[in-house]
Amino acid sequence: MVGALFPNDEDGNAWGDAKVGFPPAIQAAGYKLIDTGRFQPFSDDYGSQISAFKNAGVEIVTGVVTPPDFATFWNQAAQQGFKPKVVTVGKALLFPASVAALGSRADGLSSEIWWSPSYPFKSGLTGQSAKELCDAYEHSTGRAWTQPIGFQHALFEVAIDVLKRAKNLAEPASILEAIVATDYPSVVGPIKWSGKPVKNVSKTPLVAGQWRKGDNGFELLICEDVTAPDIKAQDKLRLLS
Is the dihedral of CA 59, 89, 77, 241 positive or negative? Predict the structure, then answer.
């Protein structure tokens, strides 16, 4: 039984769409979905959602909410004795700072991973591995790596590759031709617009991870690699309760 937190914003409406969002995928995988409807972002009361989840026997919570919204929901869940086995939420659990702000109760929360130092890819521009790029970022900034770093880097990698291959930089059509023909090994994985799954989209590998509390704060470990076996799992998912 899966409980959904889909707010009334662009992300929530997309994720919660009955045709192209998560509901059909969740149901096709054999789960039952409890979706209490769209709620306004930055709400201060998630009692109705928590009550519905408890009454339905929800063991898994998913959704896409902001860090403040999730913090409110998670605190109220504790107050009302709601203890799911798995909580895997997009956006709210993306950055280490927002996870750390939840304190010890963030231990074991999970999220999708678009990119991490454990990804086995190298930049076609600099030759840096994912880990080397993260290490360089942390050394130069004094801050922890975050997932968007890899994609920001890959953006410039692909742009430079396109400009190198374009036959005539003064002609937009020539640049477009080079973009369409892209087949590039980036730090986030192969980038290629082949028309699949849809035109103008290049999919990159996605795995699942779990935040674990260690001696130096929280660490995001890869715990499920079934969708991308070349990105090795570091541990198995641990249930929250």
Answer: positive
Q: How far is CA 65 from CA 68, 91, 197, in A?
A: 8, 6, 26
Instruction: Record the pTM.
Output: 0.90
Q: What is the mean pLDDT of residues 206-219?
A: 92
Residue 11: predicted pLDDT: 97
Biggest distance spanned by C-alpha atoms of the chain: 64
Domains present along the chain, CATH in parentheses = 2-114+206-224 (3.40.50.2300), 130-192 (no CATH)
